Amino acid sequence: SSELTQDPAVSVALGQTVRITCQGDSLRSYYASWYQQKPGQAPVLVIYGKNNRPSGIPDRFSGSSSGNTASLTITGAQAEDEADYYCNSRDSSGNHRGVFGGGTKLTVL
Amino acid sequence: QVQLQQWGAGLLKPSETLSLTCAVYGGSFSGYYWSWIRQPPGKGLEWIGEINHSGSTNYNPSLKSRVTISVDTSKNQFSLKLSSVTAADTAVYYCARGRLRAYYYGSGSYKVPGDYYFDYWGQGTLVTVSS
Asked: In this model, does residue A1 exceed pLDDT 80?
């Protein structure tokens, strides 16, 4: 299957650590990339590759992967991290296409 | 600094053709997958398709019969056309720069995962389909 599955919603207390997961067969062939999207804004890349952050992304964001599961970890969540998070990968079943997870709404309490 | 700027009609009637263009400023135009992604109101992201600088395309199978993505390298622009639109095509449409490094097999048949991500995005265009 080329689908990616995410939990619809996750919450975290301010300053605590939260992990957002993404599952799918394509993750055995491609690292997940992760995007943060705030209301009314375009998505922003926060993690790509094995565990790479674009310039300007705080180091509290990190990524990891094992088998068919990828994780985005926010260590010491801040109020401004409240957003929707999407994972993305490449279909590895022979169809040359991108695929997104359904998104996770992160609430910082 | 790379910037993607997109434009196109924001209000369409059912059966019309959606047409959007994205201009790329800064950086090289070759070596990337120039992509379109959409997001219906209140819903998640959906990959529509991509084109590289030489014009090779890939489309989402669910939209393939209606989608055409083209490129004009002389202007560093790429475009999306989606025919026979319905209300279900109402969404914010984004253009984005995609980067792909395919997976490969290392020594001992170990699979080295590839990379695939969108590092620059356009501002988004809300396209509404309504009679």
From this structure: no
